[in-house]
From TrEMBL:
NCBIfam families: IS21_help_AAA, PRK06526.1. SMART domains: AAA (SM00382). Residues 107-239 form the AAA+ ATPase domain. Keywords: ATP-binding, Nucleotide-binding. The keyword ATP-binding applies. This is ATP-binding protein. GO terms for molecular function: ATP binding.
Amino acid sequence: MATTKTDAISEALKQLTYLAAALKAPRITEFAARLADHACDAGWSHEEYLVAILDREVAARNAYGAQLRIRAAGFPARKSLEEFDWDAQPAACQPIAALASGSFLTEARNVVLLGPPGTGKTHLATGLGIAAAGHGHRVLFATATDWVTRLTEAHRAGRLPAELARLRRYALIIVDEVGYLPFEQDAANLFFQLVSSRYEHASLILTSNLLFSGWRGVFGDQAVAAAMIDRVVHHAEVLTLKGASYRLRNRGIDTLPSIRTQDTAD
Ligand code: ADP
Ligand code: MG
């Protein structure tokens, strides 16, 4: 009798292994085995046992999906919000914590991070991007110059509208280093189209070492700059980071005088 029961269990486990593989969820077999004794001891119902197994499978899938989305995003380095030293930017702590929940993405709001070099703009933009990927959103990261290059290529190939439509499927696009290099008129127009195509549809995070007043010089044309800033900030959190470069902390150097200009976001 005992042997028959053991045989039945081992047959069921074999079937479970086959079925879990067919569902492309091989971990289910492992979760089922791992939770079986606990389920017995705790007197779980069949439903509770099934929920516990599926819950672990969903969590594992989400974590795997987040890793894929993070890899696909093209971050220059993996910098999480957990690694950020808030003592260096105390005023940013609460607003960034609110943004990390990801609700700005469902509302297609933007985030603008301004501040001098080394104050953590790229780090925070990446951290918010990683958090967004964790919430199931697709993210793409590139510098402003790289975005312009990509859009120029699409434009030359006659597929700019298709490219902008494709990019709208990403809940978050991060444009790092707006203002490090000025744009040619054509580039400024392409960048404006990117901003316009996402306006009230999907989010942008922009970082810049220039205040908005300095963006006019970057985009050449005052009208293009004004129209773009208008769309970016209409639904946006604008955070201005302050202080000395984190890269140069404890080195006895406060700022880099050579890259200070009138309109920098110090
Ligand atoms: P920015 O983009 O403003 O020039 P980064 O985000 O690239 O600055 O920061 C420069 C370096 O210093 C990065 O390695 C970043 O991780 C680190 N860093 C900057 N601020 C902080 C901070 N508050 N806590 C931890 N690391 C920081
Ligand atoms: Mg940076």
